[in-house]
Amino acid sequence: MRQPENAASPDREEEYLADLFGTGNTYRAVKPFYTVPSWWRGFFFALLTPRDIALYMYLLAHANKYGAARPTYDVIQRDLNLNNARVVSKSLQRLEALGFILRRKARNLKGSQQPRNIYRRPSIAYTIWTLLREDKIDADLRPIVVRKAKGRSAERESNSGAVVYGLRVLLGISRMQKYSTLNKTKRRQYLLDGLAAHIREEQRAYEASRNLIASSFDDPDERADGFGRASPDTMTDDLLFAGDDMATVEGADF
Fold first, then answer.
1. Are 77 and 85 within 8 A, CB to CB?
2. C-alpha of 4 from chain center
3. Which domains does the chain have, with CATH numbers?
4. Is residue 19 a contact partner of residue 4, using CB atoms and an 8 Å limit?
5. How much is the pTM?
6. How far is CA 122 from CA 20, 170, 229, in A?
7. Which listed site, 29, 73, 74, 210, has its alpha carbon 20 to 30 Å from 115?
């Protein structure tokens, strides 16, 4: 296969690399599937251990249509081939503290006489907001403490465009334009406030949607899930986390 005519051209180089594998055997997503934002790669692998990442992906793979997963410690330990439940507990605590998952206790679930842990991935804005608040990432979404590795600076640079795109989607164009004009210290606070505002907007939209659904039934105890009548069990998964993304950001102003 011929080399790209202009090696300095990023587009030609990317096309050449893609052609190395041919066009027939290409990954195409097949539902159901789960995703992790590629623009997180600058901090995702630096802040989480391989075990944390495995558990995070495991919970995503077990999520229902509401985004909630309910595997027990024993099941997680068995499926991930971990030594003991303590290992599971530590990784869950770390994922929760860094804003990658939410966790709640649910009672009276079908087929379970004991309270069960229910897990859900929060909004992207909440995860980024938590990492900023905990001083785990800076205003450019780079990890504060990273393992020194050869090529780290090049990786950061190559990921900057994706980070800008991701933040623009979260903040909106006008907020992103102002963010880009600020110095590093002011950018961090502006980003915290902007993400908090985004979370509040999402929460208001969620509550309005819930109120509209509830008011569409003659019986106030009935609820719909967008797929027909919801069972109490699956509704528990959704309602357990209602407002969780807002639990600690009410004091922010934007």
1. yes
2. 37
3. 1-30 (no CATH), 38-246 (1.10.10.10)
4. no
5. 0.74
6. 38, 14, 24
7. 210
Question: Could you give the CA distance from residue 156 to residue 163 in angstroms, rounded to a whole number?
Answer: 10
Element (H, E) at 106: strand 102-106
Helix 173-181 / helix 184-215 crossing angle, nearest 10 deg:
160
Per-residue pLDDT tens for 45-61? 999 999 999 999 999 99
Residue range 142-162: average pLDDT? 62
H helices present in 62-120, as ranges:
73-79, 85-97
Tokens linked to 189: 């606070």
Cα–Cα–Cα angle for 88, 93, 98, nearest 5°? 130
Alpha-carbon gap, residue 174 to 178, rounded angstroms = 7
Which own/partner contact pairs does 127-131 have at CB distance under 8 Å and 24+ positions apart?
127/98, 127/99, 127/100, 128/99, 128/170, 128/191, 128/195, 129/99, 129/192, 129/195, 129/196, 129/199, 129/249, 130/98, 130/99, 131/43, 131/47, 131/98, 131/99
Instruction: DSSP letter for 223, please.
Output: -
